[in-house]
């Protein structure tokens, strides 16, 4: 059974999309079967894995708002070796259209992903930078959530709001939703601030903070303009090493969890 992981933080620019792309690719290069769901109308994850607008017809909008199935909209990439469910700006309209629905509007994504859950080891959802219905759909569909936290001032401030949204979704729509992990991004070991934010986040989330942190690395910001993940763009970069390490950490955490579930 595949695991659905949402990469969420309502704050923009914290590294959600960079993490969605490069964690997906990192897992794929380790032999895992991956579906990356671009759930942000900006479509940055779609472009980031090299899926050009001309190369697909259906998108995530068609999947959640019409009878189109996931498998009819998925595009299989060769490099990186993963499937992408692409997003276009159409998705921005879905947020508004859904408001009109009386019933089940929180479960539109979940209802469609069910059909392909067994086809993948991990389904990674790149969430939009808001706490609207799209985000609720992602958290309702997900088994767990990875929260990227940028190492900067006020890093923890928005988290209170995100955590209360997670609790609300747990209570109303998805009582199995877990926090998969908290990921420190754009870490700069030379600044006191990065170190302080790290300590504060670790104090709060304890062992749920990944040992791997993502350093600030210019290669990570350059790769998307080439339609490449960090592994094709510069596999020797610090960014590539960090995301490879994160992928291993995610796999080993889930292997441990699966074992624990078998026992008890
Ligand atoms: P979000 O999806 O949360 O809005 P992005 O992943 O798009 O955030 O990142 C915001 C910007 O920061 C992008 O231009 C991205 O290329 C850049 N960026 C993300 N992570 C890093 C990093 N570790 N080092 C340097 N630049 C980064
Ligand atoms: Mg993004």
TrEMBL record:
Q: Which reaction does it catalyse?
A: ATP + H2O = ADP + phosphate + H(+)
The AAA domain is annotated at 3-179
What's the domain of life for this entry? Bacteria
Please report which protein family the annotation says this sequence is part of. Belongs to the ParA family.
**Record note on quaternary structure:** Dimerizes in the presence of ATP but not ADP; ATP-binding is required for double-stranded (ds)DNA-binding. Interacts with DnaA.
Q: What is this protein called?
A: Sporulation initiation inhibitor protein Soj
Organism annotation: Holdemania filiformis
Higher taxonomy: Bacteria, Bacillati, Bacillota, Erysipelotrichia, Erysipelotrichales
